[in-house]
Amino acid sequence: MNFACNYAFPRRTVGTRNIDLSLVGEDLDFSDLARLDGELDDLLLPQKFDLNLFHTLEAGGFRYRVLQRSVVFYERES
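Above: the chain sequence. Below: its structure as tokens.
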């Protein structure tokens, strides 16, 4: 999996234990997303991960919220 960075962003519902991650990388597809989801699930952490591919989000709305309210969780060095 080759991603440039991940954004972690807050949920609209407070008090959930989910961690929302938006993966950035034009080469990523839904099979990469499913593989990462399985690997995170195998860790048996108390948190659940909600994943999405940033380049598949529609402009505006949710994409805007991710950019405005997120923090960079991981960024690949250039």
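Residues 5-75 form a domain with the Beta Polymerase; domain 2 fold (CATH 3.30.460.10).
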